[in-house]
Amino acid sequence: MSLSLPDSDCMLDFANRGVHEAWTAAWTILRNHPSSDGLGAMLPHGNVHSARSPLTAMIVWRAGAALPRLVRFTRGMDVTGSLAVALPLIGGGPGLTPSWDDLLIGFLCGLRASGGNHEAKSRFVGHFGIAVAEASAGTTAVSRAYICRTVKGTGPEWIESALAAIRAGDPTRTRAATARALRVGHTSGADMMLGAILGSSVWQDGREADEMLSALSCENSACSPMSDGNGRSAMTYPPI
Amino acid sequence: MMRATKVIPNLYRDSVALMDLSERISKFPGITRATAVTATQVNIDLLRDAALLTEQMPARPNDILIIVEGADESEISAAMQNAESSLVEASAMPATGGAMSAIVPSSLQMALEDMPSANLALISTPGEYAAAEADKALRLGLNVMVFSANVAIEDEIDLKQMARERGLLLMGPDCGTAILNGIPLGFANVLRRGPVGVVASAGTGLQQVTCLIDRAGIGISQGLGCGGHDLSDDVGGSSMLQGLEMLAADASTEIIVLIAKHPSGKAVQRVLDAARNVGKPVVVNFLGVDTGRDANSNIRVADTLEGAARLAIGLSQGVRAPAVEADKCAGDTADLARHTAGLSARQKYVRGLFSGGTFCYEAQLLLAKSLRQVWSNVPVDPTNAISDVWKSKEHTVIDMGDDIFTRGRPHPMIDQRLRLQRLAQEARDPETAVILFDVVLGYGAHPNPAKEISDAIAAARGEPTGGQSPIFVASVCGTESDPQNLQLQESMLRAAGVLVAPSNAAAARIAAGLVMAQSRQAEH
Fold first, then answer.
1. How large is the average pLDDT for residues A126-130?
2. Do the strands B2-8 and B471-477 form a parallel or antiparallel pair, or are they unpaired?
3. B32 touches chain A (CB under 8 A)
4. Those residues with Cβ within 8 angstroms of residue A111's Cβ, 6 or more apart along the chain or in another chain
5. CB of B172 within 8 A of CB of B225?
6. How far apart are CA A177 and CA A166, in angstroms?
7. Residue A220 confidence (pLDDT)
8. What is the mean pLDDT of residues A35-61?
9. Which of A160, A193, B391, B508 could bridge across to B366 with cysteines, CB 3.0–4.6 Å?
10. Is B52 in contact with A54 (Cβ distance < 8 A)?
């Protein structure tokens, strides 16, 4: 699969003050989003206890452990490590497009927006995306379609619009686009935006990604074996 | 504990449908947990981790897996049967006298072919699609009610122009309430039929006025909604003018009431000029705008929704409008002081939590008459915009139906959870003296709001705080014929210690009176 990446001129770079302001505007709206289902329940104003699906609590718990590792490995350009975190949860969570899949879709879009033409980042996004697409055979057909289309270069329109607004350094447009994205689906919009905002912050110089993880109450624990009820070998990976 | 599982192969149902089903089946007698999810491997693993699934099963991502857990096999079986039949629709609709085809319509045109006598389309889709559907409906010769919000203003203008040209009524966009020929549409109440016709660009405003008129034994001919942006400069009151024309020509309408929230000056002028020529008495309540008074015209101006209802009642009875009923539920000044006697000196502020945007707006106007500054997420005065909508400061009134609270969740008139969490938060705040709120009944609203609110108030009173529990003041907008029953809802709230006022305006006045009484008390 080929990947089209934005021009470096359009790279989502926090060194540009306007871009950082727009990203902050998106994160502010997202963090105040009062979701109780899907991974949006991890947000500060989310409420997993009001979740209507028992899967929400489970996927939130798993994502809470996975997200810091995903960020750590991605930051270190470690494809193997990132995939070891991302792939096992594909198909996980409530919704016709499962929550974790939606988050990965957004994450990929965010990485791509911030990676620009940087060679190592391009390579990371390419390998990561292709592996996620291949693993999507284990999820619903609708989700697989979204994943494959995203990996081929076009993420969901509402996510790409929000990222484009951030990249343009336009907080007003960003707020409108983010609010619009959050209205998509029951949980998909929030889950995808969460991934996009996180993905677009991972490779920045500042601590925005870490602050997001903290706001999501993610575990800071070192990697630990994942339980495996089907006889597959438990996966472990060294701490970074 | 026993469990039953069922896999329905290759079934497409959207996320909301699956969650609704899970929630509904969970409430069946004897059922402890239920869920309907896509049968991906990860979900199967997660459900095993949650101890909802014990057996091994192959993952089939495009299948739906239903799990029902309970103590009794027959109850589980009944619940599972219900879940399965809910998910799997009949392949053909039953024919009813030839009016319905075997194919479920997937377009307005098909639906109209199935029901040629239909003359109204109610459109409730995401905003970006609503304009196109409204356009189609108008071209098919249907009147239209657009419940959807977030329609571009340019589209609204074009649609209203098209409707006028075709002699059709367009209500909306963002029209949540209408009563046509006695039939409630959207969020609406069960009302007597009678001589008062109402045109409103404020949904809960329409509900308040019609319910108060109904309470006086007078009825409603029609309740027409205009949509939230109709009386802006751009749209110029197009739907309100059309509604006014229609009610002027309607033989069953003797008195017309017009309601709006902060209309633009240009729209107000157009509407008033038209209203002077309809040949019937017109009551006007344009909240937030001083329309002036003209004793020689057919127009009567009210400052509040309650005032508009009183004027309409008086006109329909051929008598002077009944005086404002004294705000008896809190009593006179001495009684106000009695209510506030137990408050601590720190408890100084009123916190308004509204499900109706118009109620929030009206309450702000009334509170601002006696309180120095009232913050809000939908401020009448932009300088009073609260910086953090999740945390009150000083006097604060919040419209909990605003977009920021309803993204991804139902409106607070339907789902009270967020509002009740906020109620608990305000009750814990040692600076809260009065919590003011509205309860809206009728079709579309929560089936028993007062019960949940009463439970939340009891829980809040039971929490240890630094001082006295705040005073709760509310009004209930509804009728005796509403599914929830007005009297029952008011009784439940009174039993929970809430001061229940007959109208939103009265409740706001009482809240202001209590805070003023508390302030005087604190000075002594």
1. 95
2. unpaired
3. no
4. A74, A121, A124, A125, A128, A199, A200, A202, A203
5. yes
6. 9
7. 45
8. 81
9. B508
10. yes
| Per-residue pLDDT tens digits for B221-267 | 999 999 989 999 999 999 999 999 999 999 999 999 999 999 999 99
For A32, other C-beta atoms within 10 Å of its C-beta total 17
Q: How far apart are CA B416 and CA B410, in angstroms?
A: 9
Are B42 and A96 an interchain contact pair (Cβ–Cβ within 8 Å)?
no
> How much of chain B, in percent, has pLDDT values that exceed 90?
65
Which residue of chain B comes nearest to A34, CA vs CA?
Answer: B405
Residues forming a β-bridge with B60:
B39
**CA dist B225 → B39, B186, B260, B483 (Å):** 45, 10, 10, 22
Terminal alpha carbon distance of chain A: 30
Residue B495 CB partners (closer than 8 Å, separation 6+): B454
Q: List B432's β-bridge partners, or say none.
A: B349
Residue with tokens 């079934």: B11
Query: How near does any CA of chain A get to the CA of B227, in Å?
Result: 21
Tokens 């081929």 map to which residue?
A152
State the Cα–Cα distance between residues B199 and B257, nearest whole angstrom. Answer: 6
Point out the residue among B37, B417, B421 whose CB comes nearest to the CB of A55: B37
Those of residues 13-32 in A touching chain B at CB distance below 8 A are 32
How far is B280 from B278, CA to CA, in rounded Å? 6
pLDDT tens figures, B285-326: 999 998 887 777 899 999 999 999 999 999 998 866 665 554
Provide the token pair at B434: 């009065």
Cα separation of B288 and B261, whole Å? 7
The count of residues in chain A is 240
As a whole number of Å, the CA-based R_g of chain A is 16
- Considering only CA atoms, which of B400, B409, B343, B348 is closest in space to residue B377? B400
Residue A3's Cβ-count burial label (10 Å; 0-12, 13-18, 19+) is: middle
User: Are the C-beta atoms of B284 and B301 separated by less than 8 Å?
Assistant: yes
Beta carbons of B344 and B430 less than 8 angstroms apart:
yes
Q: What percent of chain B has pLDDT over 70?
A: 92
User: Residue A156 class from Cβ within 10 Å (0-12 exposed, 13-18 middle, 19+ buried)?
Assistant: buried
pLDDT above 50 (res A238): no
Residue A71 identity (one-letter amino acid)? V
Task: Pick the closest to residue B223 from B203, B241, B238 (CA basis).
Answer: B203
- Report, as an integer, the average pLDDT of B81-96: 63
- Interchain CB distance below 8 Å, B37 and A53: yes
Contact call for residues B393 and B477 (beta carbons, < 8 A): no
Residue A239 confidence (pLDDT):
25
pLDDT bin (cut points 50, 70, 90) of residue B377 is very high
Alpha-carbon distance B193 to B506, whole Å? Answer: 26
Q: Express each pLDDT in A135-190 by its tens digit.
A: 999 999 889 989 999 999 889 989 999 999 999 999 989 998 998 898 888 789 99
Among all residues of chain B, which has the CA nearest to that of A29?
A: B404
Of A210-214, B100-104, B165-169, B364-368, least confident by mean pLDDT is B100-104
